[in-house]
Structure formats: structure tokens, C-alpha cells
Amino acid sequence: MDLSVVVVSWNVKNLLEACLRSVESTLAAGSLTWQLCVVDNASHDDSPQMVRGRFPQVTLIANTDNLGYAGACNQGLAWAEGDNCLVLNPDTEVKPGALAALVEFLRSTPTAGMAGPRLIYPDGSFQHSAFAFPGLVQVALDLFPAPGRLYESRCNGRYPRSWYAAGRPFRVGHPLGACIMVRKAALDGVGRMDTGFFMYCEEVDWARRFQGAGWQVYCVPAAEVVHHAGRSTEQVRPEMFAALWRSRLRYYDKHYGPVYTGVVRLLLRAGLRYQRSRPRREAARGQLSQEALAQREEMYRRAEQMLHES
After folding, report:
1. What b/e readout covers 104-127, taking b as 16+ CB neighbours within 10 angstroms?
2. Bridge partners of residue 171, in order along the sequence
């Protein structure tokens, strides 16, 4: 079998349906042999019922508890039988030929173990699709204001837009986790995702492990995928902000050690103090509603609590 597709979903029924239709449409139009699996992380919006009723040919793994993104992906990867495995977010829609382009790239590039597509927003506009591995500069730029050119630069892990526009595959640190294809032979050697990352950074860690095992990682701009970006995680934003930084701290500790992580913690502590002052000033000027202010306050409070407890 050429390709196994794994979609992990949580409470995004309408987006999931559009995603599955796009996958089936593009694969049915090509010559690849394939299988498709949805791993549902205990959704309460009738997503499993929708999959059973409208996509009877799709394998459904319906969890009774939310196992996190990495845990659910690993369930699908354990099920997968294809020579190539795709993990795909439900807030994506694959363009015609995108999956075939990724499979063909891995077939023709024996040193590549992982590849991601060019992601675009629903209106067709540019979206950063792959990144260099994060470091202290990226931490600082996430927490403190910076000129737009610096934010968009290699200093912040971004690759030039011209590289995407050129259409040629290029090596990267890691693809964005919305859509990642891996070679099954490489996966068998490297292993599945680290479930210690409940959400966020699992793909960064995974790509780093692939490269540590000698495999190259690429972005393939010829493969285009629409990404709605964050539609699952926006449902619980305060919790997700804390989860993001918990995962980042774990990533730095795992790959850089305690001293480096200690510096990250100092930056995060200072950045949270700065970030908490901004919405208060905006609210005082009438630029932010009290509801939005309360949400921001709760978001930063949870992050500070996580930092104190970890």
C-alpha cells in the first residue's frame, strides 16, 4: 500500500467532514493505493457519528478520553500499513495532487524521512509551513514586541517566502504539524511521537529525532494544503497557551538540558509580566473589552501557574 492517512479530530465536525472529502477526492483521482483513519479524541459534537454515517469506508478509532494529539496520532500510526504515513489536522483541505506529490518526493529522495507541504490560508494567502528549530531568539520574539521584518526572518525560524514561491523542495528543521508525511521505514526506526507532549511541540521533537537518526526533513511547495489554523485549539484558549509553554519547556529540557531551559524560564517569566501589562493598558484606553481582558488575564495566570508548578 502506498499511503496511510491519519486524521486526529476533536470537536470540529464540519471541518473534519470537509477535510475527509478533500482527502478522498484527491486520492480517488490518482493512482495511489491508500487507507484513511480518523482518531477521535472524545469529541462531544457528534463527530464519530458523522464519520460512521458519511464515510463508512474510513476506519474510525473513537476514544472515550482525550489522549492528546501525540497519543491519538500514535494510535493511527500503529494502525497504518502504507509505505508512507500522513498525519493530518482536521482543519485542513488537501489540494488536488498534493498527497501524490509528497509520496513521489519521498520515493525519489531516499535520504528524506519526513516532508511537509506548502500551507496556505483559505483565501489563498501565504502561511509559513516549516521552521528552523526554535531557540532563545524565538522565545524572546514570541514574548516581546519586535519589528515585522525581524519576526518574519530566519532569526525567528522562518524561511524566505521566495523559497516557497520557487516551488523546489528545500530542507527544513520541521514542518508545521498540520500536515506531515513520513516514510514508514524511517518511522519504524525512529519511533512514533513522544506522548509526553500532550499538545504542541510533538512535531518539533519528532523531526529532531528523525534528523538525529540520519534522515533529512523537507518542505515540498508543489504540494499545497489549505490550513484553517487553530480551529481545534481556539476552543480552550487559556488552557492551550499554558499547554504550549509547558510543551516548549519540556522540549528545551529534553534536547538542550536544564541550564538552557533555565534561561528559557527566566525569559518566559519576564515576558509574562510584560504581556500581562499590555491588555490592561489597552482596556484602559477602551481598545479591549472587559470580556477579552478577563480572558487574557486568565490565559497569563494559567501560564504563570504552570511555570510555578513545573
Report:
1. ebbeeeeebbbbbbbbbeeeeeeb
2. 218
Number of Cβ within a 10 Å radius of residue 7:
24
Question: Which residue type sits at 185?
Answer: A
* Neighbour-count burial of 82, counting CB atoms closer than 10 A to its CB (0-12 exposed, 13-18 middle, 19+ buried): middle
Cell digits of residue 158: 522562518
**Nearest 5°: phi and psi at 177?**
-70, -5
**126-158 pLDDT per residue, tens:** 999 999 999 999 999 999 887 778 888 888 999
What the block records as the C-alpha cell of 180 is 506531515
Could you tell me how far CA 57 lies from the centroid of its own chain? 26
C-alpha cell at 128: 509559513
Written as one letter, the residue type at 247 is: S
Give helix then strand counts, H and E, for the chain.
12, 11
The whole-model pTM stands at 0.92
Task: Give the domains, in start order, of the chain with CATH numbers.
Answer: 3-230 (3.90.550.10), 234-309 (no CATH)
Residue 198 · residue 68 · CB < 8 Å: yes
Who contacts 108 (Cβ-Cβ below 8 Å, separation ≥6)? none
